Amino acid sequence: MATMTHGAPLYGVTALVDQEQFQDLVQRSHSLIDKILLSIPDVHTSSIHLKMWQLKSSENTNMMIMASTLGIPQAPVLRVVSENCTLETSLSQMSEGLQLYQELLNAVLPNLNNNEKMTELSIDIRDLGMHVNMMLKLIQNGTLPTPVHKPVALRLSTDYDIQVAAHLILDQLEAFGQDVKRCLRSMESSDEEELNS
């Protein structure tokens, strides 16, 4: 069962994924994404004054048109490492999404009164992005391609827009963070696999 949750070594990346430096980065990234996921509800409570909005609410899907109107782009869809998704692709999508969420948080930060916790969250996302980029650099022999990324331009004209944007960003970040956690799990090497090699 343990080998089923750790798919990366099954698809030709055993030598890389077993590298101590890579696995250390995976574990540090796990710690950061856990910290990020634990802090999101607290950040939401301290930043969002309109208490009718809740994280993980089915109502949030109805607000996707509002997200588009406010200029909140969709993050890339993350896929775990498998025969259909390479380690490099998974890490690249993760890096792109983390960069996007850091920019989105930084775009709403100046407009919020209680933004200390959101600032800390943005820093943790930046740090996680750095770890992911270090993993990418390891598998690309020291070179990172420059990502093609359009700058975030949110359309926030009222306090209500700011509150909606902050709520939607945090809600989407929480879902993205769960996907990051799943992807990181697929990059782990398990003790059982190491014993069998």
From TrEMBL:
InterPro entries associated with the record: 4_helix_cytokine-like_core, GCSF/MGF, IL-6/GCSF/MGF
Official protein name in the record: Uncharacterized protein
The organism's place on the tree of life at top rank: Eukaryota
Molecular function per GO: cytokine activity
Organism for this UniProt entry: Mugilogobius chulae (yellowstripe goby)
Taxonomy of the source species: Eukaryota, Metazoa, Chordata, Craniata, Vertebrata
Family in the record: Belongs to the IL-6 superfamily.
Entry GO terms, CC: extracellular region
Xref: SUPFAM superfamilies: 4-helical cytokines
Entry's Gene Ontology BP terms: immune response; positive regulation of myeloid cell differentiation
TM helices/strands, residue ranges: none
SMART domains assigned: IL6
Cross-referenced PANTHER family: GRANULOCYTE COLONY-STIMULATING FACTOR (PTHR10511)
